[in-house]
Amino acid sequence: MILPIYLYGQPVLRKEAKEITADYPNLKELIDNMFETMYNADGVGLAAPQIGLEIRLFVIDLKPLAEDDPKYGEFKKVFINPRIIEYSGDLVKMEEGCLSIPGINEIVEREEKIRIQYVDENFTAHDEVYGDFYARCIQHEYDHIEGKLFVDKISGIRKQLIKSKLNNLIKGKVNCRYRVKALNGKH
């Protein structure tokens, strides 16, 4: 089922999410719905707060990028209760966008490498190191479960320049081809 994506201004996007257990209700269905919602919006990642849930869960599928680089074709993962335990490498700048902030892309600086511990959809534990674009995508989604957004990482000047666009998102003044839920309740 395709779910509405919560837009900038929704309080759930600013809350630190809570861990879940293997008996979380309808977890498999939720994960399937998150992937379906993400694909419908042409995204490569989606965190539970973006669909209104305060839980530490996000999904990533980089297959849409495989046309440009085949190595991304096999990266489809579910991250439950993740904790980034180490950041390393150089700071790298790259443009980012977000399904919860449609129509706005900004240059964001992030660490080149991360080490993350999490459980997958079967609650199998993982401790993995990622670099490059993998690390960037994971950090972006991880920020969502920490109550942070990519616009928090841009300069004050850039924030001022996009302030009216962000305010329009809060008001529900957005032209989006996928289902959204703005602060004022508009879909």
- Kindly identify the CATH topology: Peptide Deformylase
Q: Give the termini distance in whole angstroms.
A: 16 Å
The CATH level-2 architecture is identified as Alpha-Beta Complex
Helices and strands, in order, run as: EHEEEEEHHE
Overall 3D form: globular
Number of alpha- plus pi-helical segments: 3
Rg (C-alpha, Å):
16 Å
CATH class: Alpha Beta
User: How much of the polypeptide forms β-strand, as a percent range?
Assistant: 25-35%
Lateral strand order in the biggest sheet: 2-3-4-5-6
- Category from helices, strands and their pairing: alpha+beta
Give the beta-strand count: 7
Mind summarizing the main beta sheet?
Answer: 5 strands, antiparallel
Number of domains: 1
Q: Mean pLDDT, as a whole number?
A: 96
Task: Explain what this protein looks like in three dimensions.
The protein is α+β, with helices and mostly antiparallel strands and 187 residues long. It has a single domain (5-181), classed as Peptide deformylase (Peptide Deformylase), CATH 3.90.45. It has helices at 27-40, 132-145, 156-171, and strands spanning 5-6, 45-47, 57-61, 76-96, 106-119, 125-131, 180-181. The strands form two sheets. Strands 2-3-4-5-6 form a five-stranded antiparallel β-sheet, with helices on both faces. A two-stranded parallel ribbon has the order 1-7.
